[in-house]
Amino acid sequence: MSDFPWLTVLVLVPLVGSVAVALLPLPAAQAKQAGLAVSVVTLALAAAVAAQFDVDGGMQLTETHDWISAFGVHYALGVDGLGLLLILLTAVLVPLVLLAAWSDTDQPLGPDGEDETTRQGSGRAFVAWTLALEALSLAVFAATDVFLFYVVFEATLIPAYFLVGGFGREGRSAAALKFLMFQLAGGLVLLASVIGLYVVSAQQGSPSYLLSDLEQLDIGTEAGRWLFLGFFIAFAVKAPLFPVHTWLADTTERATPATSVLLVCVLDKIGTFGMLRFCLELFPEASQWATPVVVALALVSIVYGALIAIGQDDILRLIGLTSLSHFGFITLGIFVLNTQGGSGAVLYMVNHGLGTAALFLAAGFVIRRRGTTLISQMGGVEKVTPVLAGLFLVAGLATLGLPGLSTFVSEFLVIIAAFQYQWWVGAIAVTGIVLAAIYVLWMYQRTMTGPTVPALPGTGTGADPDATGSTRTDLTVREGVVLVPLVVGLVLFGFYPGPLLEASNPYVGTLLERVGVTDDAPTVTSPESETPASAEEGS
Amino acid sequence: MDSTTFVKPTLDYVHLWPILVVLGVAALGVVVEAFVPRARRFVTQTVLALAGLAAALVGTVLVGLDLTEVGDGAARGLLTAGGTLVIDGPAVFLWGLVLIFAVGGVLLFAERRLEGGVSAFAGQAAALPGTEAERQAQGLDHTEVYPLMMFAVAGMMIFPTAGDLLTMFVALEVLSLPLYLLCGLARRRRLLSQEAAMKYFLLGAFSSGFFLYGVALVYGFAGSMDLAAIDQAVRADTGNHTLLAIGMGLLAVGLLFKVGAVPFQSWTPDVYQGAPTAVTAFMAAGTKIAAFGAILRLFYVGFGSDRWTWQPMLWVVAILTMVVGAVLAISQSDVKRMLAYSSIAHTGFLLTGVLGVQTSAELADGQVTSLQAILFYLTTYGFSMVAAFAIVTLVRDSGGEATAFDRWAGLGRRSPWVAGAFAFLLLSMAGIPLTGGFVGKWAVFTVAFSAGAWPVVLVAIFSSVVAIYFYVRHIRLMFFTAPTADSAAVVAPSLLTSATIAVGVLATVLLGIVPGPVLDLAGHAGEFIR
Amino acid sequence: MDTTPYVVLSAILFTIGTVGVLTRRNAIVVFMCVELMLNACNLALVAFARQHGNLDGQIAAFFVMVVAAAEVVVGLAIIMTIFRTRRSASVDDASLLKY
Amino acid sequence: MELYTPVLVLAALAAGFAVFSVAVSTLTGPKRYNRAKLDSYECGIEPTPQPVGGGRFPVKYYITAMLFIVFDIEIIFLYPWAVHFDAMALFGLVEMVIFIATVFVAYAYVWRRGGLEWD
Amino acid sequence: MTPDDLSAFGQDPWWLVLVKAVAIFVVLVLLTLFNIWWERRVVARMQHRIGPNRNGPFGLLQSLADGVKLALKEDIIPKAADKVVFVIAPVLAVIPAFVTFAVIPFGPEVGVPFSDRTTPLQLTDMPVAVLFVMAIASIGIYGIVLGGWSSGSTYSLLGGLRSSAQMISYEVAMGLALVAVFLYAGSMSTSQIVEAQSDVWFGLILLPSFVIYVIAMVGETNRAPFDLPEAEGELVGGFHTEYSSLKFALFFLAEYINMATVSAVATTLFLGGWRAPFGIERVWEGANEGYVPVIWFFAKMLVFIFFFIWLRGSLPRLRYDQFMAFGWKVLIPVALVWTVAVATMRLARNDGWFAELRDPVSLAIAVGVAVVLLGALFAFSAREGEPEEVPDTAAARPGGFPVPPMPAGGARRGAAAPLRFASTSPSPGAASSDPAPATVPAGAGEEH
Q1: Chains A and D make contact, 3+ CB pairs within 8 Å
Q2: Nearest to B35 among E3, E379, E388 (CB)
Q3: Cross-referenced NCBIfam families, in alphabetical order (chain D) (predicted)?
Q4: With an 8 Å Cβ cutoff, is D70 touching chain C?
Q5: How many domains does chain B have?
Q6: Among A68, A173, A180, whose Cβ lies nearest the Cβ of B519?
Q7: What is the least distance, in Å, from the CA of B211 to any CA of chain D?
Q8: In angstroms, what CA-CA distances link B34 with A39, B11, B188, B200, E333?
């Protein structure tokens, strides 16, 4: 059983699916169904992987084959706690995204989409690109060879680029270009470091890119710091962190909410994932050396992201900026270098995935109804569609980390870690929460409450196949199927984060050992945590 | 003249087979031109050329198989024709490349559907545009292009094989002169084409003058044209070192011109744009391959022991080339010019690889050598360039090829396949992973980095970012811009062009996903014979 | 025998040719300057051959002559075509390819 | 170089004579100005003098020059070969035959394409 | 290959060199004067005229008189001309003509009078003497081209171009013809070549080369029947239309010296140079010593000169296209093939031919090439040019080329009726009974 290439299959299924969808001349509707089916199968596979995951087994389900012997490059896959969680997150989100975007491609978002959107096979294209993105992301989370990681890491940008540039609102192609340029620039910096790794490993015997081999190297302080820098910058752009975040808001504003979910909740996780997987594991010394700066950047991201989010009028842009703040938290958790921080960060990635996804999609539904993305033109939605409004509220509360929702746990852990690190760091982080409360609640107030604003004439009506386009109808079944699981997940892990911690703690422990920091694992304040929970329920 | 007793040089006909075949076919082509009636020339020439190239390819493979190790086993091969030709692993590898792309070139030359029954070459090169003479030559086309191209191919094969400076010079001219002519033979846009030919010729002759004076000076230094002897002289450091330095510089000028390195790049965009696109495709791939082979042999074998004299120069040139190529490409508004500038940038990357030379002592076992890296890069570069220019020939309007950017707007909507292929090739040139270009870049950067040229690598990475910008901008143009009224359409080509494109794209994909075999082959080629 | 004067002379000729190419505008004249450069090379080659007492240089000079001849033929053909089309051999007039 | 100095002597002598006679003719000859006399001769009709250097003439001459270059080069290679032929024996013969054949190919091409025709 | 033994040369003191140079100079000038006179006399005889007979014995001083006359003529420089080049051109034409004679051997080593040293009867010699001759000769062409170009007249320009074109065309044939000689002599130094002919003249064993050379040399010197550059009918005076006075004289001088030069070269390369004709040295062993051989040399040379004159007197001028076609399509291929043949024969004679042929590659190549050559030749003779590319000239000009109108009563064979100086005015019948010859000899108009 164990020698069955689970991860390869996991990656191949969506990949093949996307190619098939792209090549077969299906009508859009069937293409969507096919894509959905593929993604569900993928989800099942991910669950199966999780099922045989041994919490304390470290890296498992590994597959290693020579790929480019001249470079010492292998095709090597494997999962550990971190990888598993993110794989599951991805596998869960993609079907939901496909469902959520069911009608986006038939009825372009916003009043000014027609001139740019391609009608022919566009639905197919969306499905194909989404599946491709899923496949590559899964590969990224499973890669245990730095070269392989780099390759897929860069490759994810292509589908992402076409998703952003191909679907969404006016000016999206410019946004896509900006997005791509930022990412590729970061990627090429990473390239330099990866090459550097090769050189170092070549100097110490035969070159190899296997993570396991690279961990054996003793990289000189100087070299280590340079290489670390290369990795960190790339991941900072990806994440994003404060100085290199500017692509984020534009992209989320122009792209469809579905795409934004894929970008923010899946792709950007690669950044923080990389920080843990490579920066800390390969360059422990350099990581500690860089901590102060990184923490500072994280704090700036938290506060700055929250502040500018408050004033936004475009709802998608606003949500995008909240993520900046959230990624600040995650990075903070990672780089304070203690177990609370580590576990918190890992949890945070998952929770933020769920929460922000819910928020984006809900916002998308609202926009679909109101025919605008401008908060100032919404209002009174809750009177018309109470259920949608309610779910939107839950998602929003999750974003601001309300106790009882899963995000609270992770945010709490991170802040504790921050206080352990430096009291004032913790203090500043807390202000982030306060600001979050402001922008979330104010946004809710402006969009949902108040007098009902009539929908903009001639938009959003009748274009939807299942007739949800009307501004009057409440949440449809499809939309419900999209939102409910996310909200459930938020609530569930809010009260019962055990499984996530089970999965992440051992990983964090070993990681911090390698970095050279040891303290006791975090204790969770919920009684259920004593009962050992197996990770299946996490899925 | 002093009476030196005559010793009969031994010509190893077996190992020279590929070159001899190509030359023979070229001469035969001229005979065909002379005696076969015009009606049957086109077919005869095409078949003849393809057959010759195929034979030469087979010969190349066979030669490559039975190269014997020499010296310490680092290099495999033999010297022939009194040491003027060195048939070693890299040389044979480059032969293979040149021949493959020559086949592609022939296929593109032979394409006749695009122009409606005639090839892309002028019916009567000397006829003035818009005159009676030209109108008479309307239905005809110059089949001389095939022999010309064959001669160029032969020159390209001899160039990296040359074991002494004189042979190198002659090969340089043999490969250049036909290209000068080919550039001027376009059927459409005659003036542009002729102008390109003149610029190419004048500058080319100029640079070959430099090369020749370099030959003279180095000969004055070493007292011999033989690269091995020069190497000896350099090691012994007998004779006037300034002669050597200046000569080296002048030789470099001549060679760097051929590869279109800054500051000798000025001809590249004009010629690439003006020449018939088929010729551009062949030229872009072939010339660069041959010239880099020569550069490598000259600097590794001839001046290898004097690395510290030429490496600083190459550092500067490489940096300039990459930056200028990438930056100027942004301001272009014509596909062919953009590709030309990108090829300049590629030259810079290749030069970065040249800087990665290390003695075998410095290398860890299994570490990729600079030669290996460059050979691989040339492979990927050649495939993507040929295919890209082949695609350019397809995008046309009533006036022939439409190469202006705005004509390409929304191409992705009208013909997603062609646009997709082009986009993929551009991505490969940009060095996006899972394409051949990525692995190539990876290889050259790696070797340069391990040789300690990390500043150059950093610049290279910076210019890659810039380069990516204009590549992606073009992709965006094709896919995310609404087609306008005067957008050009894609003309369905015959099997010839389609095959070329298909092979090029396929090769780029494979080289990106499974580069292992080619890399190993390049590594297996071993070192130059010193 | 001391060949320095010849080498110097060749250098001077070469320089003249180079300057000519860079400064003159008439394609034919530019071309003649190139030929001058080649002949300067010949002079240098022969001089060095004398100095080293071997024939390589002289043989090289032979080949250079051939190459020069070939260049003349090709070059004049190209320049003449341009001249016929635009009635002028000035390099500046050929400006379609400026961007 | 001693072998070549006598040539210079003779050349100097000839040059002296030529220059002398050119100079003398200007002195000895009469000077009677007459505009028509200075026109270029054209069988009595109104002369249409060529601007010096601007004259355009049949491209045939250019082709002849090209061919001449090609064959003259060939001859240049033939001479040393001929002088040392005995030493090179068969090898020399074969190589030169190949060489001549190559030139012959070009020659055949020119011939067939009417490059040798004077219309 | 043993290096050429030129030890005899380069030994002379400066005064001896000077003497030789002056001697050659004087000889050439006198020879020219003589040749002009001789030509006019011979041609006159051929045309039943008397020729110059007034000045000096047999009019020998006629040429000198002409020279003086020319010197006294006005020296015109057309205003359309490029002054400098116009003046330089004749000088440029004359100098090479003289210089080529520097390497012509007039005789063997002789004792110098009034001194005890010996010296060869030859100004100097060099390993590449013949190449030197050809090089210098082709410099002479510059004189003609520049003369024609700088005159600023259409006639001159075309004349200059024509003559240069035909000179270079025939230079190729000439050069190819010489290869065989070098092949046999194993040297390019004139003295060595003469030495190599001590037993048999190359003119006999290399007859084709000899013939080709002789034809080529006529074309090379622009002499009838190849005197197209000066074709009065079409080009007035050709390149020297605009020249007058002594400048014209210089061109004239150059032309005649060139005649002498090519004759001298022919003598040296093919007729054994200064060596006495066969047999003579047997009956008189002094024939090849001392100053005697000079006689043989000049004798042979004058034979060639006479041949020139003879041609001019008897042959009509060729059409330019015929002329070029003859040079390019006949002489050159024949010369090439002949060269190969000679080399093969020589090789066969030198060493066991069939032993060598075991080398399969060489055999294959040789055979292949031979086939190619022959095939090519056949192909040419089969069908010339390509219909769609070579317009049919005949069709273009119906009626072909103009020929002089037939005189009334048709062409008369044999001698023309003698002139009758009747006291009465000649009757119309006399006019009709006194037609011009059907074919007007080209040179006939050149009487001054």
Answers
A1: no
A2: E379
A3: PRK07928.1
A4: yes
A5: 1
A6: A68
A7: 22
A8: 66, 30, 26, 28, 16
Q: Which domain holds residue C78?
A: 4-86
How do residues A397-416 score in pLDDT, each as one tens digit? 888 888 888 888 888 888 88
Which of A39-53, A154-168, A365-379, B410-424 shows the lowest mean pLDDT across its residues?
A365-379
Q: How confident is the model at residue B182 (pLDDT cuts 50, 70, 90)?
A: very high
User: What's the rounded mean pLDDT across residues A500-519?
Assistant: 79
Q: Is residue B255 part of a domain?
A: yes
Is B239 a domain residue? yes
Residues of D in contact with C69 (CB under 8 A): 69-70, 72-73
Mean of pLDDT values over B89-118: 90
E strand or H helix at B490, and its extent? strand B489-490
Q: Which residues contact E314 (CB under 8 A, 6 or more apart)?
A: E46, E441
Q: Chain B: nearest CA to C78, how far in angstroms?
A: 6
B5 belongs to a structural domain: no
Q: Can you give the CATH number for the domain in which D84 is found?
A: 1.20.58.1610
Count of domains observed in chain C = 1
What pLDDT is recorded for position A462? 39
Q: Do chains E and C meet with 3 or more Cβ pairs nearer than 8 Å?
A: no
Residue D59 contacts E, CB cutoff 8 Å: no
In DSSP terms, C26 is beta-bridged to C90
Alpha carbon separation from E314 to B381, E307, E310 (Å, rounded): 72, 11, 6
> Looking at this protein, which amino acid is placed at residue B202?
L
Residue D69 touches chain C, beta carbons under 8 Å: yes
B229: left (phi over 0), alpha (psi -120 to 50) or beta: alpha
| Residue D14 touches chain C, beta carbons under 8 Å | no
Q: State the pLDDT at residue E235.
A: 64
DSSP calls for E217-282: HHHHTT-TTS-GGG-HHHHTTGGGTT--HHHHHHHHHHHHHHHHHHHHHHHHHHS-TTSPPTTHHH
Task: Provide the pLDDT for residue A458.
Answer: 44
Assigned domain for B4 exists? no
**Cβ of residue E1 closer than 8 Å to a chain B Cβ:** yes
User: What type of residue sits at position E134?
Assistant: M
Contacts of E17 in chain D (CB under 8 A): 5-6, 9
CA B153 – CA B282 distance, rounded (Å) = 10
Q: Does B39 lie at the interface with C, CB-CB under 8 angstroms?
A: no
Assigned domain for C47 exists: yes
pLDDT in tens, B429-488: 988 888 899 999 989 998 898 888 888 998 998 898 888 888 988 988 888 887 777 788
Chain B with chain E: Cβ pairs closer than 8 A? 12
Contact of chains D and C by CB distance (3 or more pairs under 8 angstroms): yes
Q: Which residue of B has its CA nearest to D92?
A: B8
Whether B2 sits inside 8 A of E3 (CB atoms) is yes
* E362: closest CA of chain D, how far (Å): 6
| ipTM of the modeled complex | 0.82
Distance CA E93, CA E30 (A): 18
- To the nearest whole angstrom, how far is the Cα of B3 from the nearest Cα of chain E? 6
What is the pTM assigned to this prediction?
0.86
Chains that touch E (3 or more CB pairs under 8 A): B, D
Do C76 and B196 form a contact (C-beta atoms < 8 A)?
A: no
Query: Chain B within 8 Å of E388 (Cβ-Cβ)?
Result: yes
What CATH number is given to the structural domain containing C57?
1.10.287.3510
pLDDT, position E422: 53
Cα gap B95→A91, rounded to integer Å: 49
Domain range for D108? 2-112
Provide the pLDDT for residue B156: 94
Range from A168-177, B16-25, B44-53, E407-416 carrying the lowest mean pLDDT: E407-416
Looking at the structure of chain D, the number of domains it has is 1
Band (pLDDT 50/70/90 cuts) for residue E356 is low
Q: Which H helix or E strand runs over A63?
A: strand A60-68
Q: Give the structural domain span for E160.
A: 78-349
For the ranges B254-263, E53-62, E402-411, the lowest mean pLDDT is seen at: E402-411
Give chain E's domain count: 1
Q: What is the pLDDT of residue A51?
A: 86
Any chain C CB within 8 A of the CB of D87? Answer: no
Which residue from B5, B6, B31 is facing D108, i.e. has the nearest CB?
A: B31
pLDDT value of position E384:
46
